[in-house]
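Sanity check

After download, print the first record. It should look like this:
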Amino acid sequence: MVRYRRNFVCGGTFFFTVTLDDRRSSALVEHAGQLRAAFRTTRAERPFTIDAIVILPDHLHAIMTLPDADSDFSGRWRRIKSSFTHQLATSGAPISRNHRGELSLWQRRFWEHTIRDDADFGRCADYIHFNPVKHGLVASPIDWPYSSLHRYVRAGLLPSNWGGASEIDGNFGER
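Expected structure tokens:
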């Protein structure tokens, strides 16, 4: 059995890949409003900062920073997943069940990487913002509506034509 080792760092900044159980699903973009609400609910209960994020049909990537005295990113992801699943279930959206009869919208685990420094942060943020192009969903990162790239452009951190002709390298928990 594989033993997962998480790097729990109080006040740490982490890159995450979180994936739906059914990789053919597009529930995350079809129900983006409910996903945003799940993030808001969780953040109100247990504060954190989303430094960068992209929502794709079947998975999302995010950079999350925790408060100084807190290292529990797993609890936050559990709450986000649970809140989103509950919202979809109560709205009547079809969600399959596993062999134990439990709702199985999400893969059980997630992939995380501890951000080491500013260069690592920049590389991960670039990967997040370029991901819709990598998956063939749009020709330019700015064309994808479910991305923090728009916030970066409004803040003057990146130009609106960022990533139009480049490619970002790296494997961040994806197949």
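If your output differs, re-run the checksum step. Summary of this record's structure: Residues 73-91 form the longest helix (19 residues).
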